[in-house]
């Protein structure tokens, strides 16, 4: 089995756009509300879960930490809904996504997601399960509950990808 | 104008139930996922925003801190959608809600929401705007975007309520 090293890149809205939203106050529309006592950074991510009679739910994910080398052997996607991860830990985490190639995940791209920044995987986007770093880390997650099969998993059949360093 | 002191009570699921969800891992259904590397605390809050063609959006609120005495002169509610606040700051905040009395807010109840715990105001529930404590504090907010008027505000006409201490 071949092993291909992949490099980690900084997370930018532009680079991540094909895969979903970067959830961050950077560049967001700001509204002063509540008689001036609150600043609202408006509409950082849209939740797309109504396909097939779904509804949005909020959960908390507690992830064990990973450390390099991180081997990427499989990817998953949710055909019926977006899935948003917002870090509660103050620590960075790794985001690994891939374009679709005829119903299978293509070559993965890895991003370092800095503290205070989340991601919202668009519906049906290949992504790796949660890759916390440094310590056990909590995330607020917004995804879909409802009828239908909302999980598809695929192993890479003849290759492994390996992340040797998490710094971009 | 009369001023009535109100006491702050601890936030419990039972006491808050008429007003919405307490968003906490306490008592939540736990699922081990991602080949055992992630613990999912499942479905801590349901998002109720589809009324009138609405959709869920995620925003970040940055609230100025309040300190006692906190005067409660008005309340607001969102007739078309729930609104969830999850603290990102590691600090407590105050939650003030009220039953409806013929289309106006009744006597308020105040709760101290501890770090790591959020609330999801049910649709059309009277609540006070964000009351951060101690320092400027960020919250992840899930509420509704869409057509229609989703904000109703009411002053208490002949009374003020006053919170003199935040500890329950």
UniProtKB/TrEMBL annotation, chains A, B:
Entry EC no(s): 4.3.2.3
Signal peptide, first to last residue: none
Named cofactor requirement(s): Ni(2+)
GO BP: any one term: allantoin catabolic process
GO molecular function: ureidoglycolate hydrolase activity; ureidoglycolate lyase activity
Family the entry assigns: Belongs to the ureidoglycolate lyase family.
Protein name: Ureidoglycolate lyase
Protein's organism: Oricola thermophila
């Amino acid at each position: 089995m071949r092993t291909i090293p992949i490099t980690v890149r900084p997370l930018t809205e532009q680079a991540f756009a094909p895969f979903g939203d970067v959830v961050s106050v950077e560049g967001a529309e700001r509204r002063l509300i509540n008689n001036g006592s609150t600043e609202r950074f408006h509409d950082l991510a849209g939740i797309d879960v109504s396909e097939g009679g779904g509804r949005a739910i909020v959960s908390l994910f507690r992830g064990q930490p990973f450390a390099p080398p991180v081997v990427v052997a499989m990817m998953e996607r949710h055909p019926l809904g977006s899935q948003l991860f917002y870090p509660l830990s103050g620590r960075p985490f790794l985001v690994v996504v891939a374009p679709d190639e005829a119903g299978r995940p293509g070559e993965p791209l890895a991003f370092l997601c800095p503290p205070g920044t989340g991601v919202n995987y668009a519906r049906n986007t290949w992504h790796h399960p949660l890759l916390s770093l440094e310590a056990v880390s909590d995330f607020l997650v917004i995804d879909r509950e409802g009828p239908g099969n909302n999980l598809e998993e695929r192993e890479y059949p003849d290759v492994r990808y390996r992340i040797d360093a998490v710094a971009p």
